[in-house]
Design a protein that fits this description.
This protein is α/β, with parallel strands linked by helices and about 575 residues long. It has two domains: about 300 residues, ABC transporter type 1, transmembrane domain (ABC transporter transmembrane region fold); about 240 residues, P-loop containing nucleotide triphosphate hydrolases (Rossmann fold). Helix content is about 65%, strand content about 10%. The strands form two sheets. It has a six-stranded mixed β-sheet, sandwiched between helices. Strands 2-1-4-5 form a four-stranded antiparallel β-sheet, covered by helices on one side. A hairpin with a 2-residue loop joins strand 9 and strand 10. Helix 4 runs antiparallel to helix 5 and helix 5 runs antiparallel to helix 7. It is elongated, with a radius of gyration of 35 Å.
Amino acid sequence: MIRRLFTALGAQHDRALRKLLGRLTVAAVLQGTAYALLVPALRELLDGDPDKAWPWVIALAVLWIGYAAVHYAATLAGFRAGAHMSRDLHHRIGDKVARLPLAWFTGDRVGSLSRLASRRVLDIMGVPAHLLRQLVDSTVTPLVVILTVFLFDWRMAVSMSIAAVLAAVAYRLSGRRMQAADREADRIHSDAAGRIVEFARSQPVLRAFGRTVEGHAALDDALVAQHTADRRMQRAGLAGIVGLGFVAQASFLALLALGTHLALDGSLETAELVALLVLAVRFVEPVMMTAELGGAIRVAENALTEINDLLATATLPEPRTSRRAEGTDIELDDVRFGYDGAAVLNGLSMRVPQGRMTALVGPSGAGKTTVIKLMARFFDPEAGTVRVGGADVREMRTEDLTAAISVVFQDVRLFDGTILDNVRLGRPDASDEEVYAAARTARVDLIADRLPGGWDAPVGEGGSRLSGGERQRISIARAMLKNTPIVLFDEATAALDAENEHALHQAMAALSRDRTVLVIAHRMHTLREADHIVVLDGGRAVEEGVHDELLALGGRYAHYWRERRRAQGWRLREPVAPVHT
């Protein structure tokens, strides 16, 4: 566990951890030595010559004072280390998550990440504050006691050594069961947490179809599994406590029987036997404490293992020196990419010309959003190259690439803060005037005028107080505030009312001015305004050109355009009543 703790906390905590371990070890050695001095002190007292015991008593008092001082300092250091480690672990996890590829963020991992950053960090926080001290005490103190007993009677010492080995075996066997039960419980708890969030977010759908709590079987099953896992974990922990406690008590009875036998046959003095039995008690007590701590130690070990696994997850590689982009054109050259073994892009080659607006069209599942994510380097392609300004994005540092690109997705994520807070996310160091200017250009001022509180109105969790078009406008305002030469976005206007669509198109037009723009197009007027159109199908670019040229070809784009024109003419009509004759 200690090795895992060093790995999880990083090199910056090595010195503090080693210092803490040193203090705890010194305290445990002083405690064990003080226990050892009980043997000569009790022997002199029980032999009827108390005056000879005074030197031992004084030495014992000095050791206990030293132990108290070191133990006090180590305890304070442990609590301080626990607080600092909790803060730094959250930072390390956050920094790591920010560098993980988006493919890592599956539904089950997001749930486990939430548990990891909350419950598991608290489990580790208790290691330096509590568990580390108790773990050192339960190992070093019995070891000192055994070594001391060798000075008085080798037979009792050998018996204690055998008991220690048996206790270690029992602890290891019970610990394996506890560790396995904790891993399974953690997996089930993460799934249950995800199901609870899913249930809360799905209330409109569930209520619309008359599904109540009793009818949501997935949540019910997850909660039942969670309860079963908790009981299984408790049984595993209880078995370890009982088993190790039995070994400890049996060991003491065996030591008592051996000592009595040695005293009766005259090879061990009665006074010395009493003193050694006192040491035997001090030997058994840490073993009993280990039995009670075994479950907590195994849980902490699992927490450390999970955090270390996260920290060891491969991230997108960063070059030592960043290659500079010469321009803002974007090129994909024979790019191949897929999700979970299912190919999405199959040798895609296309170009987004500098300073122009390129529209990307194609059927659902053709890989349009994947193209944007590859350009922004949310993933790396399995094969082929993505270039920005002639530079492979893998040869550019993340901060250099993100400084050149703004992304506006169809699924906009807003944070539970004010309108201004969410706009300022585009450039946190921007002045208030710059934030207001970007927001007004994106027509966010209309939102502020509508809501109580104006610019300081809260948007709700995920932007729940706003409509889809209003969330899009705030997203575009972010991109405008960031003010990058390249803009990539979905045109999420298909389901908007006329007012929101008009405001959104004004914002998109302002954002696209004098920039290199790639639009996933769904609207006909966007296609007409585009300087360049790329048609995706089957993971490839099957057609490229301008609107009129592609219509003249009579291919995929022309078919797409005809279907859009036909869809515009759809109308809902009242059914004609049948004529009865």
